From TrEMBL:
Keywords, in A-Z order: FAD, Flavoprotein, Oxidoreductase, Signal
Keyword Iron-sulfur belongs to the record: no
Required cofactor(s): FAD
Identification of the protein by name: FAD-binding PCMH-type domain-containing protein
Domain FAD-binding PCMH-type per the UniProt entry, residue ranges: 121-304
Length: 514
């Protein structure tokens, strides 16, 4: 369920300022709550001024972005409000604001830019360190530690589970950490004796996928990276990082050879396979801001591949689909392990009956079925990718399609580089709504042993949000083929804390309830 606006801000402030009991030598029964405005240990205005001076003026106290649309708010602006409303659903707007996040519910809807809604700063950090160096991050961490203030980290705000925001907090905004150095002839991690062969990139944790892909393309390279322009290295790599290229090269975290970070004690440290190995392991998969705040990563790059791409549509009009759509989806995804082993990856979407599906900007039809954007690398276009799909589509033609009025449409396209593919197919999911995600990782037995149960599972997920771990309501199920041999067999798989289930799974099945 979505929380009501009335009572949650106060409760959230209480819960977020009072973490679980911390046991100290001086008082084993004392509860240590974080300082909040109005408590005796909240820093004085003079303390905040001194922090700002140490940061050379980089301490911000930003208002809620939606306040420009609310009369009575100090930043109310009749000229700016229409521009904000026009940009509220655009990812590019939110990542340039120091406190805004892509999805409203993580600010508890406390200041939406809509008439009739309340507006307060209760769902946002109170102060923000606009960090451009590791030293700025260090000063913010040390200040929060000294004054017992809740500390959060925001990069772009592309966070499905709300870690980049909290009330009554000091936020470290790492979006502007943009260090960049390409290593074309190997890389030697600090305090290591050997130079690693190959090509590597050292980049700030605020570096975003679009910028990375564009700049690396100039030297005919790419990385194992995310599918959205605004995904940034910091949160992506600390979460493990799945990618269209993962079935070939492994998880994104597997590519990292060195990290610079600020640890909870406020020290700037370097972690790699030769020093701080425990922290190196923990950061790579342990979740954003959990163990430290990374400021730069050094990771392996690869020659940018040519891609053969095939859009596959298998659709039937509603209401003919209620008894056959989910078995069809179960059969198709049961083929994913063998497709992955053969070199195919991509993003599939399982469409329940009565899905409004856009065939073009001016054409929307109500259908059920399956859609996938699939690729193979460095192939003989289009023969290689068609040879993988043709046996599957032939089986559908003889078993599923004739009595149920299904239509199969395949659209092949080739791309000379990963950047060319990404430019045409990057994620365009809108921001400015409420999103509660949920998902499962499915391995070969889950996908192939019992297709009847698999079909029933897809039906439940599509009809009930909680089955996917999200809120209520039915909808399209995302089925991303982003794991495979490269993830399962990567030599670094024991050197990261990536969820072990990735090492045997093929499919990430998820749903985003609105």
């Amino acid at each position: 369920m979505l929380f009501s606006r009335g009572w949650l801000p106060g409760l959230a402030a209480c819960l977020l300022s009072c973490p679980p009991l911390l046991i100290s030598a001086s008082s084993s029964n004392k509860q240590h709550c974080k300082a909040v405005p109005g408590t005796s240990d909240w820093p004085s205005p003079a303390s905040w001024r001194r922090l700002n001076e140490s940061l050379s003026g980089r301490l911000l106290q930003p208002p809620p972005p939606g306040a420009v649309c609310h009369p009575g708010q100090p930043t109310y602006d009749t000229a700016e409000c229409p521009r904000l409303l026009d940009n509220w659903s655009k990812l590019d707007y939110h990542h340039t604001d120091p406190v805004s996040t892509y999805w409203n519910n993580w600010n508890n809807d406390t200041c939406l830019p809509y008439q009739g809604y309340p507006c307060s700063g209760q769902g946002y950090p109170l102060f923000v360190v606009n960090a451009t160096t590791a030293r700025h991050v260090q000063l913010g961490v040390q200040f929060a530690k000294e004054h017992n203030i809740r500390l959060v980290v925001k990069n772009t705000g592309h966070d499905f589970i709300g870690r980049s925001n909290a009330p009554n907090s000091l936020s470290i905004w790492v979006h502007n950490l943009k260090d960049w150095k390409y290593h074309g002839s190997g890389f030697r991690p600090k305090n290591c004796k050997a130079t690693l062969p190959g090509t590597y990139l050292t980049a700030g944790s605020g570096s975003q996928m679009w910028d990375i892909y564009t700049r690396l393309d100039e030297v005919n390279q790419t990385i194992v990276g995310g599918g959205g322009k605004t995904v940034a290295l910091g949160g992506y790599l600390t979460g493990g990082g799945h990618s269209l290229l993962s079935p070939y090269y492994g998880m994104a975290a597997d590519q990292v050879v060195e990290i610079e970070a600020v640890n909870p004690s406020g020290e700037i440290i370097t972690a790699n396979s030769c020093q701080n190995q425990d922290l190196f392991w923990a950061i790579l998969g342990g979740g954003g801001s959990t163990f430290a705040i990374p400021t730069t990563f050094t990771l392996k790059t690869y020659p940018t591949p040519a891609l053969s791409h095939l859009n596959v549509f298998i659709l039937t009009p509603f209401p003919n689909t209620s008894s056959i759509v989910f078995p069809l989806q179960a059969y198709l995804t049961s083929q994913f392990p063998s497709l992955s082993t053969s070199g195919l990856s991509g993003y599939a979407f399982l469409l329940p009956p009565s899905t409004d599906f856009s065939l073009s900007p001016n054409t929307t039809v109500s259908v059920g079925g399956f859609f996938m954007s699939s690729v193979v690398l460095q192939s003989n276009f289009p023969n290689d990718i068609l040879s993988l799909w043709n046996p599957i589509l032939s089986h559908l033609n003889t078993t599923f399609l004739p009595p149920h009025n299904f239509t199969i449409l395949t659209i092949p396209t080739s791309y000379p580089s990963f950047l060319a593919y990404f430019t045409a197919h990057h994620d365009t999911t809108p921001a400015g709504s409420n999103v509660l995600p949920g998902g499962r990782l499915l391995d070969r037995p889950a996908l192939t042993k019992n297709l009847t149960k698999l079909a029933e599972t897809y039906q439940k997920i599509s009809q009930n949000g909680p089955e996917a771990g999200g809120g209520g309501g039915g909808g399209i199920v995302a089925a991303h083929l982003v794991s495979g041999p490269g993830v399962h067999n990567h030599p670094n798989k024991l050197k990261t804390s990536v969820l072990p289930a990735w090492r045997r799974s093929y499919l990430h099945v998820g749903k985003y309830s609105l």
